[in-house]
Amino acid sequence: MSRRPNILFVTTDQQRYDCLGIADSMHPVMTPHLDQLACEGIRFTSAYSDCPLCIPSRTSMMTGQAAYHHGVAKNGEFRIPEDSKMTLPGRLSTAGYQTHAAGKMQFIPPRNRNGFERMRLVPEDYVNYLETTEYRGLYRGHGMGGNEVYPVYNSVPIPYSATHWTVNESIDFLRQRDSEMPFFLWTSFEAPHPPYDPPESFVRLYDGVDISSPVAAAWNTSEEVPEWVRTRKKSHKIDVLPPHIVSMARKHYYAQLTHIDYELGRLFGELKSKQLWDNTVVIFTSDHGEMLGDHGLFHKTCFYEASSKVPFLLKPPKDWQGALTTSTVSATPIILADIYPTVLEFAGCLQEDDQKRDGCSLLNLTSLSEERPWIYGYMNDLDGLYMVTNGEWKYLYYVCGGSEQLFDLVQDPEERNDLSQDSNTRSCDMLETLRTLLTTKFPELLANDTVEKRMLFHTQPNLTEEHLKATNPFAWRGPMRYGGQW
Q1: CATH assignment of 6-373, given 3.40.30.10, 1.10.1740.10, 3.40.720.10, 3.30.420.40?
Q2: What's the CA dihedral at 113, 114, 118, 124 to 10 degrees?
Q3: Do residues 191 and 12 make contact, with C-beta atoms less than 8 angstroms apart?
Q4: How many helices (DSSP H) and strands (DSSP E) are in the chain?
Q5: Environment class of residue 98 by beta-carbon count within 10 Å: exposed (0-12), middle (13-18) or buried (19+)?
Q6: pLDDT score, position 369
Q7: Which residues of the chain have pLDDT under 70?
């Protein structure tokens, strides 16, 4: 290519892999602009978050490392390289790209740019903007009273919503940037993360649409259910939610995604009107999925498909001469850490040392499944959760209780049948194979060591208790107003 491509990186927060219109799943989601994007590029059907939680996943995107290497395996932690020039935006800034972030980044501290030249953040800058309007004080953040599941309408009109604002800030950057330089723009939506509060007009699009019930597996009601699942079900209390409320929550979730798609239409249109579309790489994905009632669970933090698998679309530049072809679907298993080397290779600044990272460039897709046939997941929750999968088989291990599960994803994509107790020879052989793969990758499991004792391959910096409290975004600091204290 004669010109280095621009790069638009779009992320949502908590979007299931099967919640795209083009996915043709049980979820009747309307996403026409993303469907068109998929037709202009590649749709990956086995993209996984190796640690399905916000901050760990975003750290993987920024560093090209999986959570079991960068050490951030739960929210409240943040461990970006001290040299911000080594982050994804830092590398691109050094290479001559204009770098801008718009929306939810969830950095700690929030104003640390981590290599970006400029940032406009949700909630920080958005709340400040909203405070200048008549809708000040109506931003719900992550819910009111801890109730994230109950569906409501957004009380902020669409032109003032965080989703609309995020695209406005992205468009402003495109209009103000130096047109002689390539750009890296990360547009990051806070939705569809709970609360499920889309604008009413988008909910109305789903009136009369059949909303399917959550997946209910037989293993989930047996005595063999993993202790982790039993504990999470108690906290989510889905059993006490009336079925019509669960259905409405799913409907509102879909509406949030349709609102995002609508706003992306504006952003894509801006690129096309400025004749930038053809020379722009577009990557779309999410930090993790959403259980949405499946297996009696909401939210994320587990390795079931609905939580750990994410949508992933990649549109190369129009005149790209590489192996990537448009309007194709790939079942090659990939992880979010792959974004780092992929973007750097598109930008022409991938270095030999980058091969040592967990992420692999997707521009070498033909050899990727041979070089990395299995991908692994780890999460620091209730002593630790582990996963190994190739997109066809999946093995899960829970340190709490020592439970394990095995799923044949080809025959059972909804994970209704746990084969870990199956006497079938094929299942037994696969169970032993995946156990061996996992303990080879994480040999400390053989020592019956817990995640809390070792913090995989990393140690926490020596911080005081006061510092930890001050930098913990989930700590209780009293009633909040406009993103600050009353």
Answers
A1: 3.40.720.10
A2: -40
A3: yes
A4: 15, 15
A5: buried
A6: 83
A7: 1-2, 76-83, 142-147, 236-237, 323, 382, 447-486
